Fold this sequence. Notes:
Blueprint: H1 2-18, H2 22-25, E1 33-46, H3 49-55, E2 64-76, E3 80-91, E4 95-104, E5 110-121, E6 128-138, E7 149-159, E8 164-174
Antiparallel strand pairs: 1-2, 1-8, 2-3, 3-4, 4-5, 5-6, 6-7, 7-8
Amino acid sequence: MKRLILVLVVLALVMGVMATPVGAAKGNPGKELSFSGVASGQGSFNFDPGAVAARCVSPAPPLAFAIATFTGSGHAKHLGRIDIVAEHCSHSDFTYSQGLLTITAANGDVLLATYTNGVSDFTNFPPDIGFTDEFTFVDGGTGRFAEASGGGVETGVADFFTDEFVVSMEGVISYDASNRRRR
């Protein structure tokens, strides 16, 4: 009788483990958390027509005239200290699109995003150019951000004369905390 009870208990435990939802087994990646971050650094522009044509797909006006690249560092919730690289296509109507954002966390995990609907604001020009866009986290990162999702809004300002920028991000994120990379 004791043996039968032991077998039933072990069987119940095995069935319980097998029935555990994937999200719970992987650190609950479906849970949406608030996300915020601030970074600053340097920007640059590539006006080479060949490079712009190769990078920026513009099937209709406004056509892209430059590739803007920003590199910097800062701090973000859920990541700690961050390094960022952002690149987008700048258009003649002061909008920008096809943005790619790479955020590297303090432990080396990489969070990837795209950004769209970018608008530049010249209210305080010169020297400042304000900007705002919408970002979306995408699959393809590493560590806990390999299958991240979520998104939000970026706002910031770039100094036309020094090429320095400051950006802040606010939104939501979902990721697999159990897949954290250790340094």
